[in-house]
Amino acid sequence: MTDLDLLRGKHAGKSALVVGAGPSARLTPKDVASRHIVLAVNEAISLFPNPDYFCARDRTILPEHDYWPTILRSGCIYALFDAVEGMPLHHFDEERTVIMTMKPSWMMNPCDDQIICGYSAQCAVHFAVILGCSPIYLTGCDCRYVDGKRRFSQFANGKQDESRAAESTRQIESSFGKKKTAPEDGVESDYFLDSILSAWKFIKSRNPSVEIIDASAGRLEGVFESVDIGEL
Q: What integer is the mean pLDDT of 21-50?
């Protein structure tokens, strides 16, 4: 396994693009990849098949998904957070894999190196901070449903078929511990939003010198500086 210390500060002074799997990921111009260090989160690797890093803490990243071959072909570094139960680690190239331990924000102290315990995109942003990246741009890190959908792969131009995307969504929603509703263009549940907001604020407060800019269409306003997705 790759030692995290070997990656610390590796991209100091370089900008990063963290691509989540939310609806706005499908609107992200492909040519932006050449301008940033790209961290593709979960199935976002199907949109950006040659990222610098593939980031996941999602137990639904399994070999039966359409984008699984893309993960293995990418040649990138696999950044896996806490290696959740059920993730098929034996498929990953050990020399290109770094596994990081997560820790809840309220248990962290200034000397801790663990990744904050959050959702996959938040872990990826924290990892980008460790890599030394700034600014860090976010896209596909949406906190709103679009047409009742919360993942880009549920749209007609997504890479994953509807049935698998729906199953993936059900699995993830069940892991939140509270059932969420999905009104058209509605926000996520209070439970989900509170968890996201807490983690974002923690990352921001611990790293005040790192510029984090959110281009996600369904972003939480007032947390980070925002920019239109076309300006990436």
A: 91
Which residue has better confidence, 46 or 57? 46
All structural domains of the chain with their residue ranges: 4-231
**Digit-coded pLDDT (tens) for 158-176:** 544 444 434 433 333 333 3
Looking up tokens 């069940």 gives 174
Q: What are phi and psi of 116, to 5 degrees?
A: -60, 140
Select the more confidently predicted residue: 54 or 79. 54
Whole-model pTM: value is: 0.79
Distance CA(57)–CA(32), nearest Å, equals: 25
Q: What is the pLDDT of residue 126?
A: 87
CATH 1.10.760 fits 4-231, yes or no: no
Alpha-carbon distance values, 116 to 2, 15, 68, 160, 230 (Å) = 19, 21, 26, 29, 29
- pLDDT for residue 207 is more than 90: no
CA–CA distance, 196 with 105 (Å, rounded to integer): 12
Residue 111's pLDDT is what? 52
Token pair listed for 89? 């680690």
Q: Which two tokens stand for residue 173?
A: 């929603």
